[in-house]
Amino acid sequence: MEPEEPSVGSAAYPEKIYGTWDANWRGFIGTTFIVALEEFGHLISKDLTALMLESLRNATIGDSYRAGGVDGDNLYPAYSNPSLMRAFSSGWVGRRLNDSNMTLAGENYAKSVIELFNRANTLSEFNSGTYTGVSLWALSLWAKYLPEDSIMYKYGRTMSAHTWEAVSQLWHPQLKNMAGPWDRSYGYDMNRYPQVMSHSADFEYAPLFAILADFASTLVPANVTQRLSEFEGEHAFTSSTYSPPYDYVPRNITSWLAPNISIGSETFNETVVGGPAINPSTFNPAVIQWNTGVDIGFITLYATEAAVQALTTPWSLNITYPAGDSSSIFSFIVSTVKSKPTMSSWDDLEGLSVNVTGNVNLTYSLSFAGLNGGADETINDFEFWNFTYFVPKALTEPPNIVLDLALY
Asked: What PANTHER family has UniProt attached to this entry (predicted)?
């Protein structure tokens, strides 16, 4: 809330979660207070310490009232980054204030998060360039500031290690990007992320990362560091993750990385469109990235279906809509091309040839999303071309499209 804004809940400024207020700020601000008290408590006056602890108590109690599906809230244990912070804050504050109920609440909530993670050693909020870092932040707090009798102390290190393993398998050092799929992403190329400037206030977290850096580095497996700095060569990655209540079944992930290219996708069957965050602009279930010779090109499937069967194999992306029909579309968000500002076909891409087959109508529509105009709106400040394929009216089988690729 900004100082010049009206009171939340007033007639002019109705209360709306993630609108006029963000419940997750309890976790971000609360964990910051805890690090300050742990690392610099000797520099903080007794009066200020008391006020900080009172705020932490209020925040922890406030979090305890949050329940996914109630009053528009989405804080289920599968919402990884705030759930990890919630469990930690409750466990730490409960111990600091000798509140056994608060301590137990944190431990029990942590068990729910851990149970989901242990199914396949993956975060439910999987492969998010933005929020994997927040989850690793919270897991570092689990491992550093809680006592050995806490389940969070026990699992903080192992969950960090498994998460870093997945990151290192999906990180492509040549492209300087995470291979897809991305559960939540605010852009399509980490080398040029305009959304960072829209979230410039988040730079205030830099000192916190610096404070924890030495400890957090001890949680990174030795083999991971090498993978992050040097491409290990062509390899595949398979895994799965699960986000109840949005997933009917676990989401299955297949990714393939080779020199100068990556492909990644996930199969899912969900209650919503747009992933567990219910946001097609950030949910990228099928992604291709490659080195154009000038920059990083991208192709990503814009989510329009609640169920997708997607399979990544070397040089190919195969997508089927099991519940699709003649109203379904396959909409691909495609990077702009510097040498060909006005695109007319796939042939205008730089460095990548795309051959499209399947039972869709192979005559596609092509539109542009620009910062200053175009038929479509930009997504997270990214300009793009939109290749959209339609399903024939007479089709009686699940709609399918295959993209076969080659670098040149």
From this structure: LINALOOL DEHYDRATASE_ISOMERASE DOMAIN-CONTAINING PROTEIN
pTM equals: 0.95
Structure confidence by residue, pLDDT tens digits, 4-51: 999 999 999 999 999 999 999 999 999 999 999 999 999 999 999 999
Collapse the DSSP code of 357 into the 3-class scheme (helix H, G, I; strand E, B; otherwise coil) and give the result. Answer: strand
Q: How many CB atoms lie within 10 A of CB 184?
A: 22
Cis peptide before 245 (omega within 30 of 0): yes
Six-digit token string for 231? 């491409």
Amino acid of residue 401:
I
Q: What is the C-alpha to C-alpha distance for residues 285 and 275, in angstroms, rounded to an integer?
A: 8
Question: Is residue 389 a contact partner of residue 330, using CB atoms and an 8 Å limit?
Answer: yes
Cα(372)–Cα(44) distance, integer angstroms: 50
Question: Buried (b) or exposed (e) across 74-88, using 16+ Cβ within 10 A?
Answer: bbbbbbbbbbbbbbb
DSSP 8-state code for residue 247: B
DSSP at 74: -
Six token digits for residue 324: 């699709």
* Residue 345: both structure tokens together: 């076909």
What's the Cα-to-Cα distance from 177 to each of 80, 155, 222, rounded to whole Å? Answer: 21, 28, 21
- Burial (CB count within 10 angstroms: exposed 0-12, middle 13-18, buried 19+), residue 366: middle
* Region label for 10, one of left (φ > 0), alpha (ψ between -120 and 50) or beta (otherwise): beta
Cβ-proximal residues to 24 (8 Å cutoff; 6+ apart), any chain? 81, 82, 85
Question: Which H helix or E strand runs over 28?
Answer: helix 25-40
Rounded distance between C-alpha atoms, residue 359 and residue 369, angstroms: 27
Domain boundaries, the chain: 24-174+183-217, 228-407
